[in-house]
Amino acid sequence: MTDTLVLHEFSESGNCYKVRLAAAMVGKPLDRREYDITKGETRTPDFLATVSREGRIPVLQVGDRFIPESNAASYYVADGSNLIPTDPFDHADMLRWMFWEQYSHEPNIATLRFWMRWLGPDNLSDLQRLQMPAKRQAGNAALKLMDEHLSRQEWFVGGSISLADVCLFAYTHVAGDAEFDLERYPNVVKWIERVKGDPRYIAMDS
């Protein structure tokens, strides 16, 4: 019997979206549980006791077991599908891009998106304001590296879409919410359109 997959999420989060997009790409159904992180719904005693002691989402629930961390959850969903390269080098390279996304991409682009879209520039702390220039510089550096890589090939790994593309797409395609100018990165823009052109693609707000 196959365990039901339940995604505990905030649907406007790119980290949550990447799990949904991976599931759509491989045709796996997900039950969804929505939490409003702006209202502290992932910090309640019940959530901390039953879903995640860290009070963070997404969390993928597999039967009575739980997988936190967006890229780990996405990997679980995509395992065994054509999103996972079979060539050992390509498989490792896919993981490299997924690790890079969480270390060099998401902490800058996603953080600025949250600060600007949900907190609002007028509500930022002094520390957040001080961090903004460095995060913007690092975010643009990440987009530039992606653009240079995509000048040589259509997908991040091998000759077809992989989980690396799914994980990088989630926050890249909404980077404009954080006032990143994607037009500076034409190869990234073309890649975004290729991902959207996949017949299995679902939008973030679907």
User: Biggest β-sheet: count, sense, barrel?
Assistant: 4 strands, mixed
What is the number of beta strands?
4
CATH architecture heading of the largest domain? Up-down Bundle
The CA-CA distance between the termini, in Å, is 28 Å
Mean pLDDT over the residues: 96
- How many discrete structural domains? 2
Strand order of the largest sheet: 2-1-3-4
Helix content: 40-55%
In what range is the share of β-strand residues? 5-15%
State the low-pLDDT regions, or none: none
Structure description:
- The chain is an alpha+beta fold and 206 residues long.
- The chain is built from seven helices and four strands.
- It has a four-stranded mixed sheet with strand order 2-1-3-4, with helices on one face.
- Helix 1 runs antiparallel to helix 6, helix 4 packs antiparallel against helix 5 and helix 4 runs parallel beside helix 6.
What is the element layout, followed by pairings?
Layout lengths: L4 E5 L4 H13 L4 E4 L10 H6 L8 E4 L2 E4 L1 H9 L9 H32 L6 H25 L12 H10 L13 H11 L10
Parallel strand pairs: 1-2
Antiparallel strand pairs: 1-3, 3-4
